[in-house]
Amino acid sequence: MCTVVLLSRPDHPWPLMLAANRDERFERAWDSPAAWWPEWPRIVAGRDRSGGGTWMGVNGHRVVAAVLNRPGSLGPAPGKRSRGELPLLALAHDSAASAAAAITMLDGAFWRSFNMVVADATGAAFFLRGLGVGRPEASALDAGLHMVTSRDTDDVTSQRVARHLPRFRAAPAPDEDGWDAWRAILTDRSGGPAEQLTVAPRAGYGTTCSSLLGLPRHGAPVWQFAPVTADATIFRPVDLAATCHDIMAGQD
What we know:
5 helices; 13 strands; globular; seven-stranded antiparallel beta sheet; six-stranded antiparallel beta sheet; Penicillin V Acylase, Chain A; alpha+beta
């Protein structure tokens, strides 16, 4: 069960702030975010070596996309495509709205059930749900703070959401340099297995990496990324220069 927390502030200089943890089997190899796909040179994302896709990425248009499993759907299944394709398909678009619309045109039967979040530097954000049949559904998210796990947005029947959503909403909102409050919550290992945000390793499963990502109204995104180890979660900046060279040159 992965976690995505996002804060939409359309009238703020930083309209979209996002925090995410990826929970996965440790045997599933992956690479830290980079421009791994020559066919999509403006996408920076973590790479899943098994499926070839990603769990989260950002593009040069300052669109971010992340995919999560729904209950009972961890791992691949015979005859199904990797859900890691879905963020890459979303990031082929120049806005969250067009990305969400494109995902809803897909045949959901090709993939196991999934949740997705797509958002952009205007503060526009969408929750998408694919149930393994029919077309995925998209819902626009209101401005404010939202939390997504394996269930629907802000679903407090999830122990993780019930415990931590109020904490994120009460915490000081982050900006480019001020992630401290969110970082402390995101890396919290306390509580029982169902409510931990950073899942302690057990039976070959747990939180493998964490992200803090901000999309400014003008200029390049900021992405702090951390592989999660048993001892520490140390965030380092992701190099977005190659993907966002036009943005960084001031050509918004």
